[in-house]
Amino acid sequence: MKEKWPFVISMAVGAALLAASFLVKEEYYSTILFAMGAGMFAAEGFHLARLCWWQSPARKDAYEAKQQEAHIDAVDERKQMLRMRAGWLSNQIMFFVLLALDLVLALLKAPAWIILILFVLWIFQYIVGLVIYHRLEKRM
């Protein structure tokens, strides 16, 4: 039951967002709350059902084997290195995508505040990458 509580709590938050969407009078915010609540409730409900399905007594052996394989994957040094490499590559790709998007929007004469937001996001990504790198360097 301990594994199921996060899903139940998230479903309750989703239900609260759904209920709040009916109380909000402005249609724009009501729609946003409804979509967030419905999405959260449905996604967490699906994950809870999947967890209950795997934890049923008929699938106990398969579930334990799956858990053991996930644990081995989590501590395997090669897979850790692959995950770190994938994170680094996705960071580099997004770094250049944001920069290219700034250039394209500037060429399309987008409002300056949109270009500024993307540029600040680009700088933020760079600084966060440096901070994380230096923290990891000190820890290891």
UniProtKB/TrEMBL annotation:
UniProt entry keywords in alphabetical sequence: Membrane, Transmembrane, Transmembrane helix
Protein name: Uncharacterized protein
Transmembrane segments: 7-24, 30-49, 88-107, 113-133
Source domain of life: Bacteria
Keyword Membrane carried by entry: yes
Lineage: Bacteria, Bacillati, Bacillota, Clostridia, Eubacteriales
Organism annotation: Candidatus Faecalibacterium faecigallinarum
